[in-house]
Amino acid sequence: MGTVVLKHVPEDRAGEREIIDTGVAMIGLGGDNVHCGVCGREMMHDVPIRTMKVNLLYRCAGCDSLNEVPPDA
After folding, report:
1. Mean pLDDT of residues grouped by 10 in the chain (73 residues)?
2. Is 4 helix (H, G, I), strand (E, B) or coil?
3. C-alpha to C-alpha distances, 6 to 9, 59, nearest whole angstrom
4. How many angstroms separate the CA atoms of 14 and 23, rounded?
């Protein structure tokens, strides 16, 4: 398990990508702890974000910013 800091995406660059609201926090069954690229809040805990092969955006409930998994994660 590691830590992944997401990359901020401006609202005007979201395009047609699906946006997932992580709410208070998403909790998985094993994986990484994922943090917002703007405010640093933990958005997901134990989620296998590095192996998810989808092009989603994640909305932070703390600062309302959009984030994506950086290509080097």
Report:
1. 93 94 80 95 91 88 95 83
2. strand
3. 9, 11
4. 19
Those residues with Cβ within 8 angstroms of residue 73's Cβ, 6 or more apart along the chain or in another chain: 4, 49, 50
CA distances from 20 to 1, 14 (A): 22, 12
CB neighbours of 8 closer than 8 A, spacing ≥ 6?
Answer: 37, 38, 65, 66, 67
Cβ(57)–Cβ(28) under 8 Å? no
Q: Is 46 left (phi over 0), alpha (psi -120 to 50) or beta?
A: left
DSSP-derived secondary structure letter, 6? P
41/19 Cα distance (integer angstroms): 18
